[in-house]
Amino acid sequence: MTRSAWYRKIVMVVVTIGLFVSQIGGAVALSASTTPFGPERFVTNHATYAITTKSAYYQRIWRSAIRAWNKTGAFTFKLASAKAAQIKLTTATPSESQQLGRDVGLTEFWARHNYLFKINSELNPELLHNYGYSRSDDTHVAEHELGHAMGLAHNPSKHSVMYYENRSVGIQQVDINGVKERYQTPAGQAS
Ligand SMILES: [Zn+2]
How far apart (Å, rounded) are the C-alpha atoms in residues 117 and 43? Predict the structure, then answer.
């Protein structure tokens, strides 16, 4: 066993790091169809989460979004400690807000051979506040970020929680169908 063999092994592990951003709501409508998904997924249709923001308001927003997705039965988010959780849900600090620019939400993911193993999702309180997003708008942005956490991509239709500039639309049947299809489709295959 040589050192170079060890290095070679590291190089062969396929790690994907991705990023989704959600911008301020507005714009066009296209026809609704099953929400598309990327090649990445969790091994099964459940994952553990922890809400790490200190804001009581945004803790409630994340909890509402979790409840809304869990109610669909397509995927189950289970509460875990911040240390153990696969998915961390938080808010941007004021300095992170500056870097986010026009992005109201952001989800970063880490996958190995297209299997997700770590997700960080954050909401941008400063921008949500400045643009007068209501409590339900904020919840929709959180639901959208959780959509990415499960492996959903953007839906070009405005009638989807996964529309890239979504603000006023909650989880739709097309989104539930997208999650179901994602978990009936092997990792590595996108829709
Ligand atoms: Zn997005």
Answer: 9
- Residue 163: both structure tokens together: 């529309």
Centre of ligand 1 from the C-alpha of residue 122, in Å: 12
For 67, residues 6+ apart whose C-beta sits below 8 A from its C-beta are: none
The domain locations on the chain are 14-28+44-184
What's the 162 CA to ligand 1 centre distance in angstroms?
6
Q: In the CATH scheme, what is the code of domain 14-28+44-184? A: 3.40.390.10
Summarize pLDDT for 29-64 with one digit per residue, the tens: 444 589 999 999 999 999 999 999 999 999 999 999
Task: Kindly give the distance from the C-alpha atom of residue 10 to the centroid of ligand 1, in angstroms, as a whole number.
Answer: 31
Is the full-model pTM beyond 0.70?
yes
Nearest to 40 by CA among 147, 115, 112, 106: 115
Q: Could you please report the per-residue DSSP string of 91-108?
A: E--HHHHHHHTTEEEEEE
For residue 9, report the distance from its CA to the centre of ligand 1, in Å.
33
The answer to whether the CB of 51 falls within 8 A of the CB of 59 is yes
Query: If you measure from the C-alpha of residue 6 to the centroid of ligand 1, how many angstroms do you get, rounded to a whole number?
Result: 37
- For residue 148, report the distance from its CA to the centre of ligand 1, in Å: 7
